[in-house]
């Protein structure tokens, strides 16, 4: 059996909001992927990966996971001695789930019990999300478990609230004028410090209020409109979301993107939003006319992820 591939993920909606119980919508992104492999560890990349996996295995061994989700740590450690490493082209610090894919790959290979993603019930999803949260906390200090869950399931996931997630089908991508795309900010972002800034902001009552009353409302309305393929309400709420982020998430918007973000709002040609925690990495763009947006965003590296 060939080693399964674990794809990157894109959080279309819900960045920071899911910390505060908003909805979220995530998609697998097959452009980037990772898989566990064996080698003689001759390259620096393979060596470094193997050494960091050894440290990670020690951490996993210290976790007290529920019986139905236990990991075979001794097998993992034996495999590491045989040259196991994680072969991945998922960029780190880009908000597309590099650690999530690794966690999913480890669970798939070393979980004592075998699970088939398509047969996992909603209750099991909830449990698995908790387990993945513990497994991924090693990388981020605190994790919701969402990223590994998406990478593991390889299906679009609707985050209903802090506790509940469900599989969801999204409208099929087809060659229209409109597009959802990624823009490379040209710098990496670190999740930890960005989340720290967010929690500092949450200490002020005014920010908490606007987060709950405005951000979460626009965010959830975007998800609802996208799943129903209602483009006018989608773009109306996207604009509100983009304006809100421009005003309140300034520290999370990479400097290289400031002007382009504002230009989109001023011309209504496209709207930008954070992809993940921000600070660098990718930014998400939405437009009804990709050709026009592409011209206006000349000089940026862009990747289309969805057409409509």
From TrEMBL:
Keyword list, A-Z: ATP-binding, Cytoplasm, Kinase, Lipid biosynthesis, Lipid metabolism, Magnesium, Nucleotide-binding, Transferase
Organism in which the protein naturally occurs: Kaistella carnis
Any GO CC annotation of this UniProt entry: cytosol
Stored Pfam families: GHMP_kinases_C (PF08544), GHMP_kinases_N (PF00288)
Keyword Membrane: no
GO molecular function: ATP binding; mevalonate kinase activity
GHMP kinase C-terminal domain residues: 253-301
UniProt domain GHMP kinase N-terminal: residue ranges: 84-153
Pathway recorded for this protein: Isoprenoid biosynthesis; isopentenyl diphosphate biosynthesis via mevalonate pathway; isopentenyl diphosphate from (R)-mevalonate: step 1/3
Transmembrane segment boundaries: none
InterPro entries for the chain: GHMP_kinase_C_dom, GHMP_kinase_C_sf, GHMP_kinase_N_dom, HddA/FKP, Mev_gal_kin, Ribosomal_Su5_D2-typ_SF, Ribsml_uS5_D2-typ_fold_subgr
GO biological process: isopentenyl diphosphate biosynthetic process, mevalonate pathway
Keyword Nucleotide-binding carried by entry: yes
This protein's name: Mevalonate kinase
């Amino acid at each position: 059996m060939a080693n399964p591939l674990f794809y990157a993920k894109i959080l279309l909606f819900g960045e920071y909001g899911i910390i505060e119980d908003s909805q979220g919508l995530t998609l697998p992104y097959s452009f980037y992927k990772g898989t566990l492999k064996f080698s003689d560890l001759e390259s620096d990349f393979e060596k470094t990966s193997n050494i960091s996996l050894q440290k990670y295995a020690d951490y996993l061994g210290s976790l007290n996971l529920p019986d139905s989700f236990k990991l075979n740590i001794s097998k993992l450690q034996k495999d590491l001695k045989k040259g196991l490493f994680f072969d991945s082209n998922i960029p780190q610090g880009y908000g597309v789930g590099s650690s999530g894919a690794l966690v999913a790959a480890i669970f798939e290979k070393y979980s004592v019990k075998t699970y088939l993603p398509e047969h996992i019930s909603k209750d099991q999803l909830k449990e698995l999300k908790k387990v993945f949260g513990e497994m991924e906390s090693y990388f981020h200090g605190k994790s919701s478990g969402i990223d590994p869950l998406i990478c593991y399931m390889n299906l679009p996931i609707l985050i209903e609230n802090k506790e509940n997630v469900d599989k969801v089908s999204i409208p099929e991508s087809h060659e229209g004028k409109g597009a959802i795309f990624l823009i490379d900010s040209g710098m990496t972002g670190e999740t930890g410090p960005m989340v720290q800034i967010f929690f500092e902001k949450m200490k002020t009552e005014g920010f908490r209020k606007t987060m709950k009353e405005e951000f979460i409302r626009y965010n959830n309305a975007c998800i609802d409109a996208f799943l129903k393929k209602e483009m006018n309400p989608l773009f109306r709420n996207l604009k509100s979301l983009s304006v809100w982020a421009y005003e309140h998430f300034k520290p999370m918007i990479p400097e290289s993107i400031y002007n382009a973000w504002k230009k989109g709002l001023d011309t209504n040609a496209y709207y930008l939003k954070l992809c993940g925690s921000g600070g660098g990495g990718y930014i998400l763009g939405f437009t009804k006319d990709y050709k026009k947006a592409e011209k206006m965003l000349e000089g940026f590296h862009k990747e289309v992820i969805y057409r409509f």
